[in-house]
Amino acid sequence: MANLYRDNPLSKIAWDAFQGLSALEKGPYFQREGKPYHALVAQQFTRPVLDRLCDLATQVRRIAKTRGGVLFLQDLLCEKRAMLYFTQPSTRTFLSFYAACQLLGLNPAEVRDTTTSSEIKGESPEDSIRTFSSFFDILIMRHPAGGFAERIAWLLSNTERPVPVINAGSGKDQHPTQALLDIYTLQRSFERRGGIEQKKIAFVGDLARGRTVRSLAWLLTLYPGVRQYFVAPPSLQIGDDILAALDRAGMAYEISSDLQKIIPEVDAIYMTRIQDEWDVAHESRDLDTSRYHFRVADLARLPADAVIMHPLPRRREIEPGVDGDPRAMYWRQVRNGMWIRAALLLTVFEREREIERYYQDLTS
Ligand code: CP
Predict the structure, then answer these.
(1) Structural domains of the chain, with CATH
(2) Mind telling me the catalytic residues?
């Protein structure tokens, strides 16, 4: 029953050598025939893969509108089981993966509280996770340690029961599947305006510790002509590693601390919360971030065809009164997460063709 992938390139490289690679260099180790087998870093995704995932997500979304379609989808992965190992809090990512599994008939199980597992007896997370691969066909995991999902993918790839690993958020560095749903939301928002290319996209808030921004900023390098704005207090600005990646990709960007100046200029504004759970030294606890809030009064200055996004959860950075504006996309983002994650699961298990055939019959 396990998805044994014997040619998994991660089984052919030593951990020390792998660890020394850049995220971009690691990408090919997570692929099977140019498609994701593991999904661990934003840098592993190519533009054709993103386009295919978005098409697949739309096909699944449309197929799921009928009872017959739902029954077809539920049969696709009914022989598979998924472990959702979330040792860091989550509402949307956990539930959208759970719902995507249910949509495809993939049976989900969960460990969210390690005090109820044998980790409380001193078992290492590595051994705990290796146990999962005895029972499950895929591991979807969120962990506070940056790079831990990669370590697990490497470890499992070097056992007799390798299973694909999906990173549902790791440390402050990566949240690749959030970036996928953000791309899907942007693509749907701009489908009548020539797509994501050439758009001006502003990231606002805690850009230093926001893993969603780091993953999405990189994916946007795959869309020619996009101009990115990073709007934050100086102490919470985007990391130099991301700016270096944008420079290498020849992408235009602007660093700013003036949200009011940026609002009338952009096609999309991506708000984020202050991530003070990482703030062990309480450096940002007393920082006044009210200048980086989007208020009802700001709607009048935002272009009529722009969109407002947020990975959520939010605190006060978007006034609830903004929610009713047609440009507010953040609740649609949440639902898009289910569709794109279903598309990713189908791709990992190589079942996309069946979706395409069913969709063709449905629309012909
Ligand atoms: N966007 C996001 O990752 O939300 P959760 O933390 O609720 O999963």
Answers:
(1) 9-175+335-354 (3.40.50.1370), 176-333 (3.40.50.1370)
(2) 92-93, 121, 142, 175
User: 272 CB less than 6 Å from ligand 1?
Assistant: no
Segment 209-229 shows an average pLDDT of: 96
Mean pLDDT of 292-309: 98
Spatial contact of 234 and 206, defined as CB atoms under 8 Å apart = no
Tokens of 293: 């809030």
Predicted confidence (pLDDT) per residue in 72-102, tens digit:
999 999 999 999 999 999 999 999 999 999 9
Q: How confident is the model at residue 3 (pLDDT cuts 50, 70, 90)?
A: low
Q: How far apart are the first and last CA of the chain?
A: 35
Taking the whole predicted model, whether its pTM rises above 0.90 is answered as: yes
Q: Indicate the top mutation candidate among 85, 88, 92 to test ligand 1's pocket, ranked by most ligand atoms within 8 A of CB.
A: 92
Instruction: State whether the beta carbon of 91 lies less than 6 angstroms from ligand 1.
Output: yes
Burial of 320 (0-12, 13-18, 19+ CB in 10 A): exposed
